[in-house]
Write a structure and sequence with these properties.
Helix content is 42%, strand content 21%. It has 307 residues and is of the alpha/beta class.
């Protein structure tokens, strides 16, 4: 953008656009910005003229962003965060903070870690909320642009992102309680391959390593079902002979609620373990809000680790 083009845009309008995209309603955006609805509507009209795009289109009681608005949302968050870091206080005040933190994770993180993070957040920063999104290959780009604040993941690769290990997780095996292999505690390799498996086929999954381990031993297993999420997998063990390798902390959540048995994997067969990390772009490392958010996640993870 040229200097002439930049001078034509009131930078306060960028904050208005950011809030409108988060709130999806002129009335809610006006309350959050402490402006009248007519002032926000006027600002939206000026933004539409500047970007030569409707930006937000009314759908019932809410407004839906156009593709152009969605393109702007990530860079806009990044620009405003940089300005806030430049002119704002050196420390972050969570009690008075407003807005939405965008965190990408898998269903494992959604079940095991995020409830503890949200509980701590609601106490320390009651006016902040979390928007969850599934983690995928686009998470790296979304962290770079600022659309995402943080990712929680156990995947094998982090590219050029910054990471902090929160805890280590391992896989165990779940079965129905009256399964022929249940009750013995530790499975043998023959027990492990004698029954059909459910495979959770997530991004960069460690579970694919089981087949490499079995091949090393000259053995193989039958994959009866592939599912994309850990949360669904244990249900298939309830009324079948299928066995389900899942992360241990998730297995503990399911064991009592679904009345399933947890079995130890064969000692000679490492079915997998992983470091669970929080991942972010280096640009956010010294951002006061982001430092506070990482500390909040770290504390939540410590409670899980020690518990």
């Amino acid at each position: 953008m040229s200097a002439v083009h930049l001078r034509r845009l009131d930078l306060n309008l960028l904050l208005t656009l950011h809030v409108l995209l988060e709130e999806g309603q002129v009335s809610r955006a006006a309350r959050r910005l402490a402006l009248t609805q007519s002032a926000v509507s006027h600002a939206l009209q000026r933004l539409r003229e500047h970007f030569d795009d409707p930006l937000l289109v009314r759908r019932g009681q809410s407004m839906t962003p156009t593709p152009r608005a969605l393109e702007l949302q990530g860079p806009l968050r990044q620009i405003l965060a940089s300005i806030e870091q430049m002119v704002g206080p050196a420390e972050f005040d969570p009690a008075g903070a407003r807005g939405t933190l965008r965190i990408a994770t898998t269903d494992y993180g959604l079940s095991v870690l995020l409830p503890h993070v949200l509980a701590a957040l609601s106490e320390a920063a009651p006016q902040l909320s979390i928007a969850y999104t599934d983690i995928g290959e686009d998470a790296y780009e979304h962290l770079k642009t600022g659309f995402l604040d943080l990712a929680l993941t156990g995947q094998e690769t982090y590219r050029d992102m910054r990471t902090e290990t929160l805890f280590t997780e391992r896989f165990v095996v779940m079965t129905r309680p009256d399964h022929p292999v249940a009750g013995g505690g530790t499975l043998t390799v023959e027990d492990f391959i004698a029954w059909p498996h459910v495979l959770v086929d997530v991004l960069h999954s460690r579970l694919h390593g089981i087949d490499r381990e079995l091949k090393r031993l000259g053995k193989s297993r039958q994959i009866a079902l592939r599912v994309p999420r850990f949360l669904a997998a244990p249900f298939f063990a309830q009324s079948s002979n299928m066995i389900v390798p899942v992360p241990e902390r998730l297995a503990q959540l399911y064991a009592s609620s679904l009345k399933l048995a947890i079995c130890e994997p064969p000692p000679e067969l490492d079915i997998g373990r992983f470091d669970y990390v929080q991942m972010w772009h280096d640009r956010r490392t010294n951002d006061p809000l982001h430092r506070w958010l990482r500390a909040l996640v770290r504390q939540a993870a410590r409670g899980i680790r020690e518990g």
